[in-house]
Amino acid sequence: MPTQKRFLFFLNILLITFITGCKSPQIGEVQKANQLPKIFPNYINVTIPVNIAPMNFSIKEEGDLFWAKISSGNEELLIRSKNGVIKFQEKRWKKLIKNNQEGQLKIKIFVKKEENEITREFEPFHMYIAKEKIDPFLVYRLIHPGYYNWSSIKIEQRSVESFNQASIVENELIEKNCVNCHAFNQNNPERFLIHIRGSKGGTYFTDDQQILKTDLKIESMPGGATYPSWHPGGRFVAFSSNQVRQNFYAHQEKSIEVFDLVSSLILYDTQTNEILNITEKDSINPLQTFPSWSPDGKYLYFCSAGCRKAGSNLSLDDIKNIHYNLVRKSFDPISRTFGKDELVFDASKMKKSASFPRISPDGKFIVFTMADYGTFPIWHEEADLYLLNLQSGKFKKMELNSNKTESYHTWSSNGKWLVFSSKRIDGRSARPHFAYINSGDSIGKPFVLPQQNPNFYNKILESYNIPEFVTSKVKFNPTDFESAANKKPLISSPGNPNDTTPRWIKLENEKERAKIEKGVHE
């Protein structure tokens, strides 16, 4: 039939065009560059998990034609680009790394200018493939760097195995209030909490299909409940209760510093809806913060410093004298009581300050942030991650650090991967980086979370805060939290009505300032 003949004719033309049009310019004659190529992100010689999303990158060398030759064993893949962007097809990428577990990908870059017949061949680099998987999802707070205005804040989840992402909470739906302090129980996507400040204020607990809004504030707390840590059993959550302030200074090296006026530790019992003070009543002006449970639930680790001077008008020199140590207390879940403080790591002896202790799932190591002073390392360029061996007491500065801020770190559920926020890309915004922890003495070179567009991080300002691994996708969405925010909160009560306030002083003259300050951003 005429229609069928026309169809076959156009099909043949299309096939001829496809075959001839697919002929790529050849690499041709090459000249050794005798150097590694400049690529972004810097994925040169990184260690990656076998289930990671395609590691797309951009070649930052001058040229008009670019090639990336990827080889491993008997497999070889050649990708050509006119703009230097190297993208892997997802199916081909997954097959490539699956076939090379515990092996490596060898990547060789070629760059050619149109007016030059010679193609530059750069030194090859590798991506080493670990057999241990990384948890498939990452949850983080996406926020603009800033000091006061809450602007747009989201809690998002991103598949680490692909480029799919979705919002869990958006503050646009809850009157633009601050959203922070998300925390998961044992990387469980169904059991977590999120804190919201302002007109929709409260701590929101999820349990399978339910979101419960609670008010955790009781009289004996100096501030709201923050920096949560779930007890492994799931019944208890430890918080610190802080009065946080930020001061601005006319110093070139330091224009802002965030610090605690007072801070103490509390325990929330999810079964009884009760709050108990953890901070010892006979402590002398302690600053205690950043609670973190051991994997067996027998110890609560935290950071503690002596408060030498009260008030918000602290000079920068005053704050530089505040140093936090790593401390722990034993815990009895039956009586809900704690033992005495035990010093774990004396950072003050080094004129340093420790924060964010995170214990490995096997209980052998603690990773913590150490800065020169204070309690808010995200604003400290010198802040680095340290690894402490709990069995030997030995510690070291981790190889994964850069000359910019490292902080906000979390272990994967199998203890083989660490995610942390780093400002190494531009010195301004924090991005999630992953590092392979083979052992305390063997750590792979870290890499930033892959993006479909490898130039993505050069186009956004937002910081990725508090990255947390989860073992599967979170089912809740922004409208679920919008509905929960409109409900009345469940009011908590003191776990021991006779429990007196710890020996810290409520700074009454700070109330007015607290009303006008909208809180600390990062």
From TrEMBL:
<comment type="similarity">
    <text>Belongs to the TolB family.</text>
</comment>
<feature type="region of interest" description="Disordered">
    <location>
        <begin position="485"/>
        <end position="522"/>
    </location>
</feature>
<dbReference type="InterPro" id="IPR011042">
    <property type="entry name" value="6-blade_b-propeller_TolB-like"/>
</dbReference>
<feature type="compositionally biased region" description="Basic and acidic residues">
    <location>
        <begin position="505"/>
        <end position="522"/>
    </location>
</feature>
<dbReference type="InterPro" id="IPR011659">
    <property type="entry name" value="WD40"/>
</dbReference>
<protein>
    <submittedName>
        <fullName>WD40-like Beta Propeller Repeat</fullName>
    </submittedName>
</protein>
<dbReference type="Pfam" id="PF07676">
    <property type="entry name" value="PD40"/>
</dbReference>
